[in-house]
Amino acid sequence: MSSNPKIPDFDANLIISEAETIASASAEMFWNESVKTVLSVCCSLPDALFPTLKGCNSRSDYITKWLKKYFGGYNNRPSKRKSKKIGTVSDEIIDIILSARLPDLSIDNINKIKSAHRLSMSAENILGLLLEEYLAEKLSSYGWYCAWGETMNKVDFCTQAGELLQIKNRSNSENSSSSSVRRGTQIRKWHRVNASNGVYYWKELNQLIGESELSEENFSVFVRQTITENPSALYVEDSNYWI
User: Which of 24, 42, 75 is a domain's end point?
Assistant: First the structure.
């Protein structure tokens, strides 16, 4: 055993074996190559990759909470999730701003604009999750496994060899402050689209993983199919004008 500020009584071998026991005994979890790989890679760089989880008084506490985070993300992926209500209300001053700039806008049209905006906000809230699930589905056959539920610091996918990949939807998305978790261990970074000019970067991701089928067209098909089969993934207010 060794000292680790995040995990009491840190022991990589015991963490893997105890995690397998806990996951296999739970109806909401399972144990497979994906879970094992993500956890094993975390164990290889525990200080850098394991997330900080509060209230862990034992190794078992930490493992249980880590698994709950992982499966919380996996079991609530867009194809399965029921999105929650938007937690904010419209600011009435928006009506004044719009009507002052465009005096010919009727109250009804202003309400339509606000309804469309809130619907767009709901869609934006799940876009990153849709991208994550699409890539998780496609990349696993190439040995890249998803760190569901933010179970790796600053990393979204990893391989058994310890390769690390961080994905973002747009080039202006919030990004990690560092591309390295330890000297000699780099986090590769990829974003789907350039926010300034709309250029897509699927070719670069295909080259990175040795793929050829990843594309905006295929991602669009996945998104449409996912939302069609699980409409609850996109929250729509009962009062929204467009339903």
Answer: 75
